[in-house]
C-alpha cells in the first residue's frame, strides 16, 4: 500500500519484501510484502495455517527467514536478533506464567531476564500493576488469578522492558466480554502512549476496534490489505441483507437486476448492498421475503469469509 508523507517520515517498525518461510516442502509464507509504521496498531488475520504465526515468529527474531528481506526496527532479525528481542514485548497466546510464583515475582523474574536491576524493576512493577489493575493482587500466586487477570498479567509482563514494538498473539482468546473490553482499553492506552502493536486474532470485531491497518492472509499469501473500513467498503459494501431461504429452494432468476453481489450459502443468501432498506423492499415486492429478511451493517467478518472461504481449516 502506498505510504503518505507522514507515514514515511515516521519510519517503519517492520518492512518485509518477498518474505518467505519454508519447512522442507511446506511453504508457510510465500513472498509477502508488508509495512508496519511506528505508532500504529496492525493485525495479521487469516485462517489456521495461513502463515500468520510463521510471520510473527520471523518478526520476533525466533525463526530465520527462508527468503526475501525483513527489517524489524531497522535491523535484520537474522543477524541482529538479540538486539531486536531486547526491544520487543511479546504476549503469547498461552498464559505461560509460573503458577507457583506471585504476581510480583512473575514480573520480577521476567525483568531480570532482560538484565534490569532490581532498583529499576521495583517502580516499574508498581507502574505495570496499576496499568493492569492488579495492584491488590501483588502478593497472590498466579495460579489463583481469574482468566482475565492472568491475561492482563501476561500483557504487563510483556511490557516490563519498555518495548518499542509489542507482538500480541490472540490477546483475548477465551475471555468473557467484560475482560475483553478491559483489555481493549489497555491496548488503546498503549497505542496512545506511542507503542506500536502487532496482533493476530480470530475475533474480527477486535481487529475492527483496535487496528489502524491489517492484512488478511490465506494459503501463505496476503490476499488483502488496508484499513478495516477500506476492506469492508471494497469487498462487502456498506450493508448486508440476509435472505433466509435454503439454496435448493432459491430461484436465482428472481434476483436478476436486483443486486450485483450475492453469496449463496446452504441456508441463506447474503446480498451485499449500499442501501439495505431499498434492497429489502425490492425482495418483499418480488415475494422473496416469506422466509425472513435480516438487514445489518457489513463487517470485517464478511470480508474475511468472502476472501478465505467458509470451510473449516484444522
UniProtKB/TrEMBL annotation:
Transport keyword on record: yes
GO BP, sorted A to Z: response to antibiotic
All residue ranges annotated as the ABC transporter domain in the record: 14-244
Family matches, as InterPro entries: AAA+_ATPase, ABC_transporter-like_ATP-bd, ABC_transporter-like_CS, ABC_transporter_ATP-binding, P-loop_NTPase
Membrane topology: Peripheral membrane protein
PANTHER family: ABC TRANSPORTER ATP-BINDING PROTEIN, ABC TRANSPORTER ATP-BINDING PROTEIN NATA
Name assigned to this protein: ABC transporter ATP-binding protein
